[in-house]
Design goal:
There is one protein chain. By secondary structure, the protein is an alpha/beta fold. It has helices at about 20-35, 45-50, 85-95, 105-120, 145-165, 180-190, 205-210, 235-245, 265-285, 305, 315-325; strands at about 5-10, 35-40, 55, 100-105, 125-130, 165-175, 195, 220-225, 250-255, 290-295, 300-305. It folds into two domains: about 5-145 and about 265-305, Rossmann fold (3-Layer(aba) Sandwich), CATH 3.40.50; about 145-260, Phosphofructokinase domain (Rossmann fold, 3-Layer(aba) Sandwich), CATH 3.40.50. The protein contains eleven helices and eleven strands. The protein has a seven-stranded mixed sheet with strand order 3-2-1-4-5-10-11, with helices on both faces. Strands 7-8-6-9 form a four-stranded parallel sheet, with helices on both faces. The mean pLDDT is about 90.
């Protein structure tokens, strides 16, 4: 591969996701394979502005593939949203002789990459890393598989106590704009109902389903994405208690940031490894301002302005599956 790139910078930005370390490892080792130097940028765009750099080699990324979080740290940067902040960031890149960037994150990460890449003509390739899996242009983002398995493990434990006490558990998971965590983990955990932002919630239909469902069910699970129009699990619980006072023994469980942590699954480790190598090769092939993802097993390259748009709908077959299996 013919390229003028000699040094690549790599950073993680936005919310952390299990598998980010595996992606960092793949970027560094692929770069070294192609005889490139690598500079790690700590704390995302904030660290880029402040010049928080660390030289990386193959030894730097030993024994991290199994670790959650990100060894490069992550942070949100209001300063990077300004033209002056991005000017300072670019000056730091030039001072470090960084010729190209690989950024690992979600839509906010790619929005920032698109701006600085356009303003200063620096090649940047993104790797999809977000537990919400809400990026256009890849079937799965790094961290999503681990997150939904974390949710399923938690709900399995909740169902044990729900069955012991004949309870209704309303479980809230992450997903301010996207309900994909709730949808897939809800199906996998056998939820009676799943409420997500992409689908209008019919509260009357939900209540009817609870009232007409099999009476021999010792427990019921309602999965709610935090961005659902009902306002989250606490609001759903309040409505149930108002409509059916003392009918159900209701408990609310908000899983919160536990969904971000933990060792990445095998799927996330392999996905991150493939995308890390592909990102380096994409830069060497002259690609820029694109996110690399995988669609139907093949690499896809999506311009940042398309990748940063949230998915506006979910597979209707999955929604129907919930209704069928809840009987």
């Amino acid at each position: 591969m013919q390229s003028t790139i000699k040094r690549i910078g790599v950073l993680t930005s936005g919310g952390d996701a299990p598998g980010m370390n595996a992606a960092i490892r793949a970027v560094v080792r692929a770069a070294r394979y192609y005889q490139l130097n690598v500079t790690g940028i700590q704390r995302g765009y904030d660290g880029l502005i402040k010049g928080e750099f660390v030289e990386m080699n193959s030894q730097s990324v030993s024994n991290i593939i199994q670790r959650g979080g990100t060894i490069l740290k992550t942070a949100r940067s209001n300063e990077f949203r300004t033209v002056e902040g991005r000017k300072q960031a670019f000056a730091q890149l030039k001072q470090q002789s960084i010729d190209a960037l690989i950024v690992i994150g979600g839509d906010g990460t790619f929005a920032g990459a698109r701006l600085i890449g356009t303003e200063f003509s620096i090649p940047i390739v993104g790797i999809a890393g977000t537990i919400d899996n809400d990026l256009w242009g890849t079937d799965f983002a790094i961290g999503y598989d681990t997150a939904i398995n974390t949710v399923i493990n938690a709900v399995d434990k909740l169902r044990d106590t729900a069955e012991s006490h004949d309870r209704v558990f309303i479980v809230e998971v992450m997903g301010r704009d996207s309900g994909l965590i709730a949808l897939r983990s809800g199906i996998g955990a056998g939820a009676e109902a799943i409420l997500i932002p992409e689908s209008q919630t019919d509260i009357d239909a939900l209540l009817l389903r609870l009232e007409t469902s099999r009476k021999d069910k010792a427990s019921k699970i309602i999965m709610v994405a935090e961005g659902d129009e009902m306002g989250g699990a606490l609001q759903v619980a309040r409505i149930l208690e108002e409509r059916f006072p003392k009918r159900y023994d209701i408990r609310v469980s908000i899983l919160g940031h536990i969904q971000r942590g933990g060792a990445p699954s095998c799927l996330d480790r392999v996905l991150a490894s493939r995308l890390g190598v592909a990102a380096v090769e994409a830069l060497l092939a002259g690609r820029q301002a694109e996110m690399v993802g995988i669609v139907k097993g093949e690499f896809s390259y999506i311009p940042f302005e398309q990748a940063i748009k949230h998915i506006g709908e979910v597979n209707p077959n999955l929604l129907k599956l919930v209704e069928i299996l809840s009987l």
